[in-house]
From TrEMBL, chains A, B:
<dbReference type="GO" id="GO:0006508">
    <property type="term" value="P:proteolysis"/>
</dbReference>
<dbReference type="InterPro" id="IPR051458">
    <property type="entry name" value="Cyt/Met_Dipeptidase"/>
</dbReference>
<dbReference type="InterPro" id="IPR011650">
    <property type="entry name" value="Peptidase_M20_dimer"/>
</dbReference>
<keyword id="KW-0378">Hydrolase</keyword>
<dbReference type="Pfam" id="PF07687">
    <property type="entry name" value="M20_dimer"/>
</dbReference>
<protein>
    <submittedName>
        <fullName>Peptidase dimerization domain protein</fullName>
    </submittedName>
</protein>
<keyword id="KW-0479">Metal-binding</keyword>
<keyword id="KW-0645">Protease</keyword>
<feature type="domain" description="Peptidase M20 dimerisation">
    <location>
        <begin position="200"/>
        <end position="351"/>
    </location>
</feature>
<dbReference type="Pfam" id="PF01546">
    <property type="entry name" value="Peptidase_M20"/>
</dbReference>
<dbReference type="InterPro" id="IPR002933">
    <property type="entry name" value="Peptidase_M20"/>
</dbReference>
<dbReference type="GO" id="GO:0008233">
    <property type="term" value="F:peptidase activity"/>
</dbReference>
<dbReference type="GO" id="GO:0046872">
    <property type="term" value="F:metal ion binding"/>
</dbReference>
Amino acid sequence: MNAWKEYQEKNKDRFLQELLELLKIPSVSARSEHRNDMVKCAEAVRDHLLAAGATSATLYPTEGHPVVYGERITDPSKPTVLVYGHYDVQPADPLELWNSGPFEPVIKDGKIFARGACDDKGQFFMHVKALEMMVKTDSLPTNIKFLIEGEEEVGSPNLATFVKANKSLLAADVILISDTAMISMDIPSLDIGVRGLSYIEVEVTGPNRDLHSGVYGGAVGNPITILAKMIASLHDENNRVTVPGFYDDVVVVSAGERKLMAEAPFDEQEYKKDLGVKALWGEKGYTTNERTGIRPTLELNGIWGGYTGEGAKTVLPSKAFAKISCRLVPNQNSEKITKLLIDHLHSIAPESVTLKAELHHGGEPYMTPIDSDGYRAAAKAIETTFGKTPIPVRGGGSIPICSLFEQELGVKIVFMGFGLDSDNLHSPNEKYELFNYYKGIETIPYFHQNFAGNGKA
Amino acid sequence: MNAWKEYQEKNKDRFLQELLELLKIPSVSARSEHRNDMVKCAEAVRDHLLAAGATSATLYPTEGHPVVYGERITDPSKPTVLVYGHYDVQPADPLELWNSGPFEPVIKDGKIFARGACDDKGQFFMHVKALEMMVKTDSLPTNIKFLIEGEEEVGSPNLATFVKANKSLLAADVILISDTAMISMDIPSLDIGVRGLSYIEVEVTGPNRDLHSGVYGGAVGNPITILAKMIASLHDENNRVTVPGFYDDVVVVSAGERKLMAEAPFDEQEYKKDLGVKALWGEKGYTTNERTGIRPTLELNGIWGGYTGEGAKTVLPSKAFAKISCRLVPNQNSEKITKLLIDHLHSIAPESVTLKAELHHGGEPYMTPIDSDGYRAAAKAIETTFGKTPIPVRGGGSIPICSLFEQELGVKIVFMGFGLDSDNLHSPNEKYELFNYYKGIETIPYFHQNFAGNGKA
């Protein structure tokens, strides 16, 4: 459809400028000091939706940050696509490792550098611009709904309540999400699953106050040493997680599917070179792509305790802390794994310390069938704009709300992401390539076209 | 000598006020932002020495913070006492655990609360006030020299150079140090040894940048997990240090001495209650007092890596860090232990990470003989003012410069400390009891009197 291409070409500079403005808002959901920025960002999303052609768009308050909902219902008899995305971003620290301000977006070498450039402002905003393209060229083939939340990066603690209370508002025939990555722009792929999550925080308390490590050292349990011993014991010599029952519910992937996965292009030398490591690490008996795709993991996301400043302080600290998260695969259950992990930590904590372990957030794993209408509409759209059939792959990340969506709304989810693994999500110097941004905007209308033809209508 | 008692009684409020003023100066040697406070504190010490009766007192610049030297030579034929102390203090963090500002001293329940109240401003200042008492009552029985340095809490990196270059200036018959503790005011004791120290910092680097823990987790070595495994392996199941060669040079303490040590009053239930722990921890086969006195230890003083802020961040960090220190006993050598520890850490670091391990500072263990003139002069002074013979005990802490003093100046060191283990050294709410402060000032002149009688003169 040349009208789309023509409209995009004529407006591409503005499409970019609008995204850059959105990236300037520091919408860090984890930090309470950004509460006002969250509202400001939600309002900007609402205004963009209305400007793009949504007939209504509203902020819905929640116990946490607001949800933005907008829609354009062209004809109730046509199929409805619900676009889900999130306007919140991860914290930007460590700030000193950024080459430019995380909320001062810059374009360099054809890439947009900013926190949220890819995850997920750059990606959900493609859908807003695709809506504009279709509306302005009078060619929107579906009904379209937008649900853009502000708490994805903290586990969507309030979205389930919103979804359950607004099932008819959100009723749709498919849910479309751009919050994942492709293998590369030369090797397009579509994620067919996201992993679940169980994210906890642990506090180990030894003595009731910081002590002089000379006067008390050697005689009193040091919470850092003890926390380290506990963490060390969570993986065995084959790097398998030792929490009893951890693997019990894991669906065994067939030799056939593993063989298919192994055919996806992957260059281990290139992977190691990109990360600057001499050797990889992971569960024995599985390849790198299997380790990040079909296997559950347990990772340390943070640790702290004692003196962490300049120079030396001879202290035996009172407390040590860690943030630990597990990625889960079908059919693991987040609540069950969280309980197993916390119970196990309590069981291995020695008597010389007390342990507090609490859930930050969780989410269930999700798989999408490749023979669904939605998946086929996405694959065909990619074929049209990339000239290649996308490879179905398992994604390593998590989108906590997916399984609830399917349960409450009764429809399948399609992950049509245009990011790259090298986009530095959750890291300093997050980026999104201009090519990918524009390619996404170009591809999305074809999804709607295909789904309107192939869907229930 | 009633003139001393009378002088002290008349001036006790001023003695306290002067100390409080000194405690207001945040002389934190580890932090470069306190460089000017260090000079200010050194100048205050110099002025106090001159006011107390030192005939000269000077700041000597070093590569780091200045050394204060002062003296009063009454008669070259009399024995000379060199008083060593330090005007620098430990960092005050974690600030939020202080009940009052660390550099805003307050008196509560007969205790002075402030960083440095006991370690070591409150203790070395007793010697300045004792000098004043003896000079003003015209009864100083010895020559007296003061060496008050500003880098003890960072391992005295520049004091050795100063001592070696000023051997005749510092020439003395005994070195007297108040920087240790007594069992209690009811059970006076004298330390007969301090432990040595080897303090290192470790940096473990995995991938060259922070990664998304979903996209890369399970496939890339996590530096926190790997650092935890390394730390965990440093103690075996009997809590013995596993660094090869660590115990090779440790002097085996005789059954007789261990029996004597076991006779010193110690209430394990009280000790646990004070620290708020259900169980103690330490090397199998040794008592608590042995673990902190005659055995070497390895303690974690700090750890950090990844996301340590509010909420959750799903990051697989690039780096993790730890501060580790060993306390050493006779005849361990700090340099040798540091090398053994760093070599061992390199040997156990897996290929998926790179390790950097560097020395912060070290110091040798030191023992003082109980049949020396100095020890006997101190014991007799304690008998006079406490009415009890002090128990000789092994201290757990370190005063890095001790072994160098003996080597360069050829004299013995006497540790006459008036602190308590419960003084929260290096911790929030450091304190020094008024009773101990005044008791120290009262006792010190008797040391000089005894040493003048018993010493070489």
